[in-house]
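Human: Respectfully, please carefully check these tokens:
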Amino acid sequence: MSATFALSAAAPVGRAAAASTSLRQRLLKSSPRQPGGARRTTRGGTVYARVSGTERTSTTSQISSQIKDIRSQMEEDEDLNTLMAGLRGTNIDDSDFAADGVKMRVVDLDKIKAEGGDDDRLPLYYDPELIAQYWRRRPGAVAQRILQLSTIAGSFITGIIADLVTNKTSENSVKRAIQLREIVTSLGPAYIKLGQALSIRPDILSPQAMTELQKLCDKVPSFDNKIAFDTLERELGCKWQDIYSELGPDPVAAASLGQVYKGKLKSNGDIVAVKVQRPAVLETVSIDLYILRRVGVALRSVPQINTDVVGLLDEWAERFFEELDYVKEGDNATKFAASIEDDLPQVVVPRTYSEYTRRKVITSQWLDGEKLSQSTADDVGDLVNIGVICYLKQLLDTGFFHADPHPGNLIRTPDGRLAILDFGLMTNIDDNIKFGMIEAIAHLIHRDYDAIVEDFVTLDFIPEGVDLKPILPPLARVFDQALEGGGAKNINFQEVAADLAQITFDYPFRIPPYFALIIRAIGVLEGIALVGNPEFALVDEAYPYISKRLLTDDSPRLRESLRYMVYGKGQVFDADRLIDVLEAFETFSVASRTSRGDMESEAAAATTAAAAAPGGFDLNQIFAQIQAGLTPPAAAASTARGGDQDAQTREALQFVLSPQGSIFREFLLDEAVKGIDALSRDNAARVLQQVGLGDATVPLLLPGALLPRSVRLSPRVTDDDRATVESVTKLLNFLLRGSRTADPSKVARELGPLLPAVATEVLPELISRLNSRVAARTIREVFGDQLTSTPLAAGAASPR
């Protein structure tokens, strides 16, 4: 999946590389395309791409295989391989301290105090106007900072101006990126963070420039311990010895915003990490943003620059200011931990000690471990899968997304769990984007390109109001080639990338900021996984979670997405697609139990022990739990065994009958009614045919008729009925696989507790809808055109 994201990002890379040697121009030299099986038609002056034959869909296994093929071919292209390595965080320098000789230049606080009054304060949140007002009253400090920056970056700025004048910005982009990387650490935290933010924006920078900026080290020399401890005591309002029995004496790591000490709480002996903010950070960051914003306003008049520099800077700066508030960082960690604790106990988030946390000091739980990317443990693959589920939950469920994913923030703990660190930078993803992603996946599987183009608008890739019709033909060619069978040898990757490049240059495509963070998170996880498993494909891990959401979420949009996934554009029930979704759900269930690890086993053991106690299970308690929507103790113990080695019924059947499956049962109710009706009529027709009554009729005297009419005894079975019978049979065979040869007593124990609730909830509605269907069909067949109306009386004319 990361390969697909990188593929979609390949074209925007060309925007920053528009010279003759750029990736875009090389891609656009490809010859006219004639993908196999596709043809172009014109309707009303608009060209549409159409694929011969009936509607085609792609299974997740086919998509997974194609993604691996695409990734393999992408890695053969130097630029795209560089891009993918960057998105996976391969180039990040995650040292604990800066290299020797690196110095950070910050503002002169004495100069600032001399120019301003005591009551004049900088805002603690990002407000460009208030910040501008503050620094306009301190022209001396601004001039001093500009001189400081010019001294460090003078040659770089001169080079940028020369590139703009000579129209060589793309040609010299790598050279300038190397210069920027070499000086940016000295410029201070704003420039370090800005460089790192740009390093994951392929729509702004070329792959080589991204690579250089990804080598930026967010580590700088530690500042004086006395200053750190004075800040600590001033923030906490007491001597540090009153809170910590041990602290320091030296930092264990230093970054652009602060440095970390290892300590021990005096109250309970907990080992903690204490992060103290660097002095003058707010002043340095705000004055740099003020200067950069003024430069951005000036660049609006430069025709060669079509990026909204000011808008990009404001969007990034707002999040950056949040990182300066350690209280918010602690709250983020607490909120994040609460959002995943029930589903992902194998994911560890350091506890925040809020009573010892202030705006410039945060005290959190100390976690031992090793970087997941550097671990050689056997369970790294499992932890990557847990990480995938965790980020999918953030992305598609909670909407509270960890926006600073890199290998240094993913830790394997000694007990084999996944720890996620650093919650200073988070982003919120609204429901429209969450649901839009799931809808886009369903549309991709059904190759509904018209809908996919609309999805680009929903997901903020294309502004509203843009004419989407011209985008469809190249987009259809891109996806048709990528999703065709036959492996990478049948994919003309140059043509695919050229189409993408042309789309992004001809139409207002953009990569939304949230999506750049998603690409990075997915890329990092994929990069770690590929080290141990070259066949890893993220879609294999992602689709099971998406299936779980589709089958259990009662959101109207997700219900509609499930219906579309199963019925497609033609609104025809597809049993194979439904089975695909159910199999993916089973995969998620197994992975979920794996992620719960020993903790689930311990809980199951406790449940089993309670069951074995005198009196055993209370039957009334079991039925009370069923009515409350809880899993019965026996089912909980069975589920926790991991892998369901002793289960006699497949997981999908247990889910369909469980309280958790109530939404899915409601979704399938109409199809169940159609299936029962079709099966009963098909069986009745077969039986009558076998006994020689297939063509028999019976007399029926209708009200108001003078003569009786003959009505076929055998029910008519249409092609739609036969298709329904085939689909229902296929689905039943899937659900009952294993049950028909299983121990009946064990099956009864597994399904028995679930059946009463199903009977009370489903059967009355099922019978009611079935009766209505049978009654409606009977009326149609008796009074409609299908009625055989030959009078029984010989020679009588048919009534008109």
